[in-house]
Specification:
The chain has about 270 residues and is of the alpha/beta class. It is built from ten helices and nine strands. About 35% of the residues are buried. Bound molecules: S-adenosylmethionine.
């Protein structure tokens, strides 16, 4: 297996930067790595644990991981087909097509992720994927190694689920990396939507309560979230809360460019 295996999806809130620039935050994993908000699974690909649970509420994302794990050759065959036929007209014609074969659906999902606007996955209220074409045209990347991805995914249980039952499965020695959508109390109007469903403040409280239970069972935990006073208050009673700097070039105000902060809360520092 090649030394460096990068996430093959571009994902809103992806944590490649955290895993590579803040390696000291991640403990040596004695049990399983559990990611209840897997997204592009940046931490899984970076840490390459012996055993893992990857879960997410996005059903298409999860079936894509399962399909690549089971049949990387067939998946790659279909992805190459999409690459050969890619054009603006083809994108709009195919973006809402439903394929019967799961490996073809997985290739369709990765195709859309690579050429749609900013790799966003968004459906309207009728479940129709409605992201316009983006500026990137490369469907196949030099870094692609789906055989290696499949081999690594064989170490993982991959589940389509809400986060709570997944966190409740964690036992002492497991390491939970928890990276929810960053909503705050002041953002209840649906700015951040995942699969038509807003991650509400109630969800943030439900998440903190499930992590409190996991902490009491002796599970190692690292949570990331917006560096907001209300969010910090959720974790300060039972975790060590810190803010970390993130270098960015996409802040809209010039004075904020290069220095946004995020919160991390942990019991393994
Ligand atoms: C910030 S992203 C995770 C990014 C990931 N750490 C990465 O490196 O790409 C949050 C993820 O939470 C998922 N999600 C949203 N609500 C959820 C819920 N109630 N239970 C589980 N997953 C959920 C979204 O589908 C999204 O993939």
């Amino acid at each position: 297996m090649q030394e460096q295996l990068l996430p093959f999806l571009k994902w809103a809130g992806g944590k490649r930067w955290l895993a590579s620039n803040h390696a000291h935050l991640f403990p040596k994993i004695e049990g399983r790595l559990i990611e209840p908000f897997a997204g592009s699974a940046a931490v899984f690909f970076n840490l390459r644990p012996k055993s893992a649970i990857l879960a997410d509420s996005n059903a298409r994302l999860i079936e894509t991981y399962q399909a690549i794990r089971e049949n990387p050759d067939r998946f790659q065959f279909h992805l190459k087909e999409f690459a050969r036929t890619h054009s603006k007209d083809f994108y709009y014609e195919v973006r809402n097509r439903k394929f019967r074969s799961v490996t073809r659906r997985a290739a369709h999902f990765v195709y859309l992720n690579r050429v749609c606007f900013n790799g966003i996955y968004r459906e309207n209220l009728n479940g129709i994927f409605n992201v316009p074409l983006g500026s990137k045209t490369q469907v196949l990347l030099d870094t692609d190694d789906f055989q290696a991805v499949s081999k690594l995914l064989q170490r993982a249980i991959i589940i389509h689920s809400d986060f709570e039952p997944v966190i409740d499965r964690a036992k002492a020695k497991d390491f939970l990396f928890v990276d929810p959508p960053y909503t705050t109390k002041h953002n209840l109007n649906g700015f951040v939507k995942y699969n038509q469903r807003i991650f509400s403040w109630d969800d943030q409280e439900r998440l903190a309560a499930s992590l409190k239970r996991a902490n009491e069972r002796g599970v190692s935990i690292l949570v990331s979230n917006a560096n907001h006073a209300d969010v910090r208050c959720l974790y300060e009673p039972f975790l060590d809360v810190r803010s970390i700097e993130r270098h960015t070039v996409i802040a809209s105000r010039a004075e904020n460019r290069g220095k946004t902060t995020e919160m991390v809360a942990c019991n393994v520092f």
